[in-house]
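dude i think i finally got it to work??
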Amino acid sequence: MDYLKLFNEPIKESLKKDKQTVLKAYKKYPVAFRSIAIAVVICSVIFADIPFLAKSRIDTRLYRVDIPEHSSASQIIDTLYSNNIIESRLSFKIYVNLLSLSRKLKAGSYYLSPSMSNAVIAEKLVQGRVSTGDIKITVPEGSSIYRIAENLKKKGVSIEDGDIEALSYNGIDEKLRMKYPFLSGVPIYSLEGYLFPDTYFVSSKMKKEDLIEMMLDRFSEIVLPVYVSSGTKYSLHEVITLASIVEKEAENERERPIIASVFWNRLKNGIALRADPTVKYVLSSPTKRVKFSDLKVDSPYNTYLYKGLPPGPICNPGIASIYAVLHPAKTKYFYFVSNGDGTHTFSETWERHKDAADRFRKR
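look at this
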């Protein structure tokens, strides 16, 4: 159920009042009318923010929160507040009361984050989205679907109804696009890039569908607000695809926005990205360094042979790389070369780039 829609219904209904009645009231009591109008505007601004209020957009870690059986709404709110999950008892209480959710909040063991909004937390508690298990799985930023599958195997987690590796080429179906509208704009069937890297708690046996939805839910909670608020003209798929390349290229946190600017500059000027990680993505046995022969592999993911972005992401990028792509540094750089210590030398011209590359080779 769309609780944000329900929250806004009273506001929409109030806008349907008879205009003539409002005009008469204003003419008869202009001073009082203006005072009431100001109060209404203030209240509207305050209440409009309540569904989206989160304690911390930065802290995306998941924390276990146990809601005992037969807990009242007030006790549940106190538990959330004492575990530093919600910013304000009052705002959360207002939200659940306005939507008549107080008696629908369910007990259980949840993994919640301070980055989740009041609306997201309430939805989880109403739907009873409890933890599926106690096995801690950490998916590092930049993990491919193949690496995620390997990580699950090492932790002894078995997927009952499918092969996780297959999600890299047939992960998105119509059912998933319906449930997660942001996938409707993805032109391919791969889920690469959309399985958000984070810490999850799973059981030793679980359904593939449950695992996918757990990670897509996290993507929705963390990535979509950042993407929408950026106001970018680029599609979500374009942003995630480029972010996946930045994720693989950047070792130094401060350089992410600069590397993002290099790739944007090349794209805007019709220059091939020439990114080694995109070539590695299609190699069956990639080595640490891309060989000259590898650059000749005929694949749309080979950004040496094909201009523009590859068909889709080459890994699942973290929020830092996504943010860097949405807010790149303002530079005139078109090239960069590794310094061998995790940093890069950036250049505006091919001549300077070649000099930097030659200096690195002579070390």
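The first helix runs from residue 3 to 14.
im so relieved honestly
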